[in-house]
Write a structure and sequence with these properties.
Layout (H helix, E strand, L loop, with lengths): L1 H21 L2 E4 L2 E7 L4 E11 L2 E11 L2 E12 L3 E11 L8 H36 L17 H44 L4 E10 L3 E11 L2 E12 L8 E12 L5 E9 L44 H6 L16 E4 L4 E4 L4 E3 L5 E11 L2 E7 L3 E11 L9 E7 L2 E8 L7 E8 L3 E12 L8 E14 L5 E8 L9 E4 L17 E8 L4 E13 L15
Parallel strand pairs: 1-4, 2-11, 9-18, 16-23
Antiparallel strand pairs: 2-3, 3-8, 4-7, 5-8, 6-7, 9-10, 10-15, 11-13, 11-14, 12-13, 16-17, 17-20, 18-19, 21-22, 22-26, 23-25, 24-26
């Protein structure tokens, strides 16, 4: 009997020890080793070193960001023995609440009481001001049944009394508003401070089930996707025109402005920025069928709708004096800027920031230079006279990098002067892009209508037409040749009943359709010094006289 009981006790002890091993919790501290920032998220890699006991255990990593995407959580590791990683669980850790500061709460109570008392004064002065204004707008006989009209001699005294009362009340009211604003600002500042100390934002805990045959050290790697982080491209374009003799040079700098508000600081990490979007769809959209039918106009139920002086010669210096002179300081040289390393393949590109850097987790934006390239652009003057009779200097460059230029703002400088800000759309590797560098005031442009003819039909069924004729003159006031491109347009029709024809006096365009825009054409030529070039654009529109036409901008597909 004793042996049987002992056996039962031993079995129970073994079962309890096995259950205890399964519940062993090993809290580990992890550090962020690397971050890849996407335009819409960030991939964070953490590393941790854990001393594992033999058997089953649960590794617990705390204080991870609340915005962590559990679907993208991946865990791997290395160990000096046989270790198996089991289930991985992302838990929500509740926000921690701290006791409020009693001194601040007492001060807030005092300030709120003072603000309530001041509100009574504000209401009283506002009512007093309204009553004075009411008396100023009504003559005395309208204020009561027994009041008499004021004599003309008493009007001046009444005016002065009302003005004095309004001035005094207005000054008192203004002072009360100033005091109220000061109290409100102080209350809000204290409330914001106590709110930040009272609660801490919620976080996540990662529980990792592991089993080790003999225990030992485990090098754990944890990677996850987190929202609340992004980077935006920004560019600097610095043009040196070179004038009539030198060649133009363009320095094009690509920057990355990294912002993250994930709740964790990225300190001393290997940082990269990627051009791929983490949350963009991975497959092409499913095209659904469309049905066409006649348009039924809505029913309207209501019709109510509408030179310095010469110095004395100095004696020559002796050798001893020369030897005692300090060595001349080297001439200042431009400071080199740190750039990133481009890592690309056939399908994606990323830039690895040099060294280890830090990005705070409070939403502060930190800017990094990714690349800086000098190139020789092709310069030309571009003119759209129908919209603006100004010539704008334009530089055409080629994206020779293996990474695309994402859409973003461009800070533009010309010969050391800031001339504005532009914006570029997405530019693929090997694709050209045109950048504007401000107005060229030495190219004079004028556009004037030559003729406009409209007929008025006298009977039903006749065709109505409109003829337009414009002349554009371009004069080059530079002392060197300038390539010029003039862009203009005529309307187009998708209705067979409306025809648009170009008239013979039109100067033949160099490009009949620019950037797949129907009706938009261009004339390119080299403007010689002091030369004036004339361009004509004439067209005629025909349509049935019983109908009216309207000219509207056509939608353009955005990239």
């Amino acid at each position: 009997m004793r042996l049987r009981v002992l056996a039962l006790v031993c079995v129970s002890s073994i079962a309890l020890s096995s259950a205890w091993a399964k519940e062993t919790i090993v809290e580990a501290t992890s550090t962020i080793d690397g971050v890849i920032v996407h335009p819409d998220a960030a991939t964070v890699t953490r590393r941790a070193t854990i001393d594992l006991p033999a058997g089953a255990a649960t590794v617990l990593l705390k204080n991870l960001p609340f915005a962590l995407d559990a679907d993208w959580l991946r865990v791997s590791g290395e160990a000096n023995g046989r270790v198996t990683i089991g289930a991985v669980e992302a838990r929500l850790a509740p926000a921690e609440t701290q006791a409020p500061d009693t001194a601040i709460e007492s001060k807030l109570k005092q300030l709120r009481g003072a603000r309530e008392s001041l509100q009574v004064t504000l209401d009283t002065l506002t009512a007093k001001q309204a009553m004075i204004a009411r008396y100023s707008q009504a003559s005395p006989e309208k204020l009561g049944p027994e009041t008499r009209p004021l004599a003309i001699g008493e009007w001046s005294a009444a005016f002065d009394a009302i003005a004095s009362a309004l001035t005094k009340t207005g000054e008192e009211l203004r002072g009360a508003h100033v005091k109220a604003k000061e109290l409100d600002d102080e209350i809000h500042a204290l409330e914001a401070g106590t709110g930040a100390r009272a609660t801490r934002r919620p976080s996540r805990e990662i529980a990792i089930a592991v089993e080790s045959a003999s225990g030992g050290k485990l090098q754990l790697t944890l990677s996850y996707l987190v929202s609340g982080a992004y980077w935006r491209p920004a560019y600097d374009a610095r043009l040196e025109t070179g004038g009539a003799e030198g060649k133009p040079q363009l320095e094009f700098i690509r920057r990355a402005a990294v912002t993250q508000n994930t709740g964790e600081d990225w300190g001393d990490v290997a940082l990269s920025v990627s051009t791929t979007r983490a949350h963009r769809g991975a497959a092409a959209p499913d095209v659904q069928p469309q049905r066409v039918s006649f348009y039924e106009p809505p029913i309207l139920y209501s019709e109510k709708l509408a030179a310095p002086a010469a110095a004395a010669p100095e004696r020559p210096m002796r050798k001893a004096e020369i030897s005692r002179m300090p060595a001349p300081e080297p001439a200042p040289a431009p400071v080199a800027q740190q750039t990133a390393a481009l890592e690309s393949n056939a399908f994606q590109a990323s830039f690895k920031i040099s060294g280890r850097v830090g990005v705070p987790g409070d939403g502060t934006t930190k800017s990094f230079i990714l690349t800086a390239r000098r190139m020789t652009p092709t310069l030309a003057a571009r003119i759209a006279p129908a919209l603006d009779p100004t010539a704008f200097l334009e530089a055409r460059i080629l994206n020779e990098e293996d990474a695309p230029l994402l859409a973003g703002p461009v800070a533009v400088q010309r010969d050391g002067m800031h001339v504005g800000q532009s914006r570029i759309a997405f530019v693929a590797p090997g694709e050209a892009v045109e950048l504007g560098f401000g107005a060229d005031d030495k190219i004079k442009v004028a556009r004037a209508p030559v003729k406009r003819v409209e007929n008025e039909p006298s009977w039903f069924g006749q065709t109505k037409y409109e003829t337009r004729d414009f002349k554009t003159t371009v004069t080059n006031l530079h002392d060197f040749i300038v390539p010029v491109t003039v862009v203009d347009q005529i309307p187009f029709s998708e209705n067979t009943a409306i025809t648009v024809e170009t008239l013979p006096q039109t100067t033949a365009p160099t490009t009949k359709q620019i950037a797949d825009k129907r009706g938009v054409m261009g004339w390119s030529f080299d403007a010689k010094p002091r030369e004036t070039k004339e361009l004509r654009l004439a067209y005629r529109v025909k349509w049935p006289a019983e109908r009216d036409i309207v000219t509207q901008p056509a939608p353009i597909a955005q990239r």
